[in-house]
TrEMBL record:
<keyword id="KW-0472">Membrane</keyword>
<feature type="transmembrane region" description="Helical">
    <location>
        <begin position="249"/>
        <end position="269"/>
    </location>
</feature>
<keyword id="KW-1133">Transmembrane helix</keyword>
<feature type="region of interest" description="Disordered">
    <location>
        <begin position="1"/>
        <end position="26"/>
    </location>
</feature>
<protein>
    <recommendedName>
        <fullName>Secreted protein</fullName>
    </recommendedName>
</protein>
<keyword id="KW-0812">Transmembrane</keyword>
<feature type="transmembrane region" description="Helical">
    <location>
        <begin position="43"/>
        <end position="65"/>
    </location>
</feature>
<feature type="transmembrane region" description="Helical">
    <location>
        <begin position="217"/>
        <end position="237"/>
    </location>
</feature>
<feature type="transmembrane region" description="Helical">
    <location>
        <begin position="422"/>
        <end position="443"/>
    </location>
</feature>
Amino acid sequence: MTVRVTPPIDSVGGSALPAEDSEGPGGRVDGLRELFRSTPAKLISLGLVLAVLLVVSGTASAQVASSRKATHDRLLATTEPLANAAQNLYSALSIADAAAVTGFISGGIEPVEVRDRYVEAIAEASGELVVAAAGLAEEDEFGAANIAVIARLLPMYTGLIETARANNRTGNPVGAAYLTEASNMMQTSMLPVAQELHTQGETAVNSTQRAAVAPPWSAIGLLLVTVAALCAAHVLISRKTRRTFNPGLIIAIGATGALLCWLLIAGLVSSNATERAIEQGAEPLADLTESRILAQQSRTAETLLLARRDVTGMYTGAFDETITRLGDLLDQYTSNGAVEIGTDAADRAEAARTAWINSHARTVAALERGDYAAAAVLATGPGPDEATAQFARLDTALGEGIEETRNELRDNEFRASRTLSGLAPVAIALMVLSLISVIIGLWPRLREYQ
């Protein structure tokens, strides 16, 4: 007896229901799930994750190292020399004006050393102007405008001084008017612009250093994550394949770990050098530079006091103000125990400042009793106890301190740059080695499932 099995009837249409299609969408989804759950797929996914981490961390390390080194090199090549040139430019202009006024006070033909000092100062100012212009960035319109102002006014100033000098030699009173106009141009136009240029350069140095003082923590963090991921991958594959060591992954761990150690050490050493460049270089350099500017402003006030025979007390007040600010700054500098560089120079500058104040007091006393000749000798004479000698000792001491602190700044910046040398290309090379090693480590395991 034959038993016939009747297929179920669709209650709606009355036709038989078809069997489930194993090749339908549901079946394909289940197949993909099984594929992704398979060991080969997991190995491929793991390799992709490791490759992404290696590329990202290697690129970040190379970029950080290259950017930091470029920052230090730029500061050494252009930013710091520009600030130094601006400081020297201000100093040369101030010395030139003081020498010109001193020559006028002397009457007739000025002393040879005074004339030589004026000529040398003008030549130095012209040279530093060229250096400052060469160090400007193309986008620095403010700095370019300041340099253009000085370059335009300097020939006009020297022309007025020569006219004043010629009239003074012949005893023509109009020479005083030319000298006044020239000195007023220097004090109200040229020196303030030069000081702005120096302030701009000093700010650029500080901002550049601050940008490079912190260690590259982001790149170090990425490398730490990458090394941890490589170690975790090695442990998982060792357990899965029951093999203790995977040579490819071990090489990748070693290469990435070596880069991590190098970046960590180089970053810390570079940051430490940059911080020392700030604390023992840039900060004391700024104080000593400001002190030198104040000393030159004091000398200018002293010479103008005589040249214009001021009875209003304006120049005496200006001298007292700037010389007091100078003393406060030097006291603050020498009392700062953290500053190791330039303290001896600051001490010598303070001693010269005290002696200068005493000499200036004798000059003012001579003027008050109407003895202009004695006042002129006290202010501009060549004697070792007179104002000219005291100012020279003060300016020399501050100049030596500036040179010491500048060398400290540049030496540490050079050390910071040298520490990062070669790190960027090595980072790329080690990451390529790590990528190849990961492939070598995973490829044999994948072939076992073919």
